[in-house]
Amino acid sequence: RNDGEHFVAAGEDSIINIWQDVTSQILLDQENAREQRIIQEQELSNCLKMKQYERAIFLALRLNQPNRIRVILNELLEANKNLVIHEIVGKASNEELEKLMLYLRDWNTSAKGSIVAQYLLNVILRRFTPSRISQIPRVPELIESILAYTERHYHRVDVLLQRSFLVDYTLSEMRQLDSERNDLDNEDNKFVNISRLITDTSEAVSDDDESDDEVLSSSSSSSSSSGKAPLRPFEKELAGFLAQEKTQTQSEKFSKSTKYYKREFPLV
Prior knowledge:
Elements: E1 6-10, E2 16-20, H1 23-49, H2 53-62, H3 66-78, H4 82-90, H5 94-107, H6 111-127, H7 130-134, H8 139-226, H9 233-257
Antiparallel strand pairs: 1-2
């Protein structure tokens, strides 16, 4: 019999086979699935625009879009919405948890996706008891493959941490060099100020000596012109004592003006 939908065949083994043509039904089912997928993808886009992350993740699980799930989890981590991830994982079924474990196993194979994978694994292990995790299909196989790459990531992080110490040491040494350079500049400024002070003091002392010499010469000339008697021995001794006291007083003033500096510089 061949009516276009059914086909009956029989053989010598006394078995009758009835065949039915379901090609049109298969095509119709595929078209319906395609339309349903388009509707779900549009709904997923709308959920992402409205920031409905929980429904978006479950829709992405139905549509088998691991990259979309990873992007959503990255956005939640950057926005510090960790509680939303805990709530989503807590509502997942065993089948959905199996998909999440498969996805994070693949993400964990690269450094770019390892952060999301490690955080999601941490949430699953903290959220559920060992008895619940053991009910997830293929758990031993998934855990074994996850651990292999996790050890590599921890080793990589340890190496980066050790290298960061070298950066800290280099920065501290650069700050110390900068501080020493500032100290040298301050010492140079002090040296210039002391040199100027010494020069000004020397000029002032020389001016005082010239004025004293002029006064003594004028007094001696006036005394000689006026016909006064020369100085007696005790008067000469008194004049010498006063000159010595004047010189000592000037020296003390100069030492006081430079006593706050650590270095001593000769008079120019």
